[in-house]
Amino acid sequence: FMMQVDVDYPDRTAERQMMVATTTGESKSVNAVFKNDDLKKAQSLVKVMPISDKVVDAILELVSRGRPGEDSPDIVKDYVLWAPGPRASQALMLSCRAKALLEGRSAPSVDDVIALAEPVLKHRMKLNFQARSDGIDISTVIKTLTEGL
Q1: Confidence class of residue 25 from pLDDT cuts 50, 70 and 90?
Q2: How wide is the angle at C-alpha 84 spanned by C-alphas 82 and 88, nearest 5°?
Q3: How far apart are CA 141 and CA 77, in angstroms?
Q4: E strands along 1-149, which residues?
């Protein structure tokens, strides 16, 4: 069984910039955004940030919609080969909290779940060959999953 993985490649200009920037002898300096202690505090804060039942339910609904089953959207039944597991729910929970924290809000919202659905689920789902032959991509599936959240 051979599986094909879709990879988005950079355009020629971006690839040129990457190639030149990463293969020269120049030394680049990096400025720290966080100190170790600050990063650890932020990580701890994200884990204790309050999150409403409405947001938790939206995360669970989104992830479960992505799993083939009787109540799944047709696009999932027809095209999803690998569905998101519990780690997708965990990643969404932490990501939503982190997004709210970075934006200076005291708690995440359902809008955060929708905004982070694609970046979190994109590599936790795999579509079947039929999806590819029908021109369906993972972004389309995830967008369908977020409708009505």
Answers
A1: confident
A2: 150
A3: 11
A4: 80-82, 126-127
CB atoms within 10 A of CB 13: 8
Q: What is the pTM (predicted TM-score) of this model?
A: 0.77
Q: Report whether pLDDT(7) > 70.
A: no
CB 61 within 8 A of CB 110: no
Euclidean distance between CA atoms 64 and 62, whole angstroms: 6
Do 126 and 81 touch, CB atoms closer than 8 A? yes
The two structure tokens encoding residue 71: 């109540």
**Do residues 116 and 99 touch, judged by C-beta distance below 8 A?**
yes
Q: Which amino acid is at 112?
A: D
Phi and psi at 84, nearest 5°, equal -70, 140
DSSP 3-state of 93: helix
List Cβ<8 Å contacts ≥24 apart for 53-60: 54/110, 55/96, 55/107, 55/108, 55/109, 55/110, 55/112, 55/113, 56/93, 58/110, 58/113, 58/149, 59/89, 59/92, 59/93, 59/96, 59/113, 60/89
- 33 token code pair: 């955004």
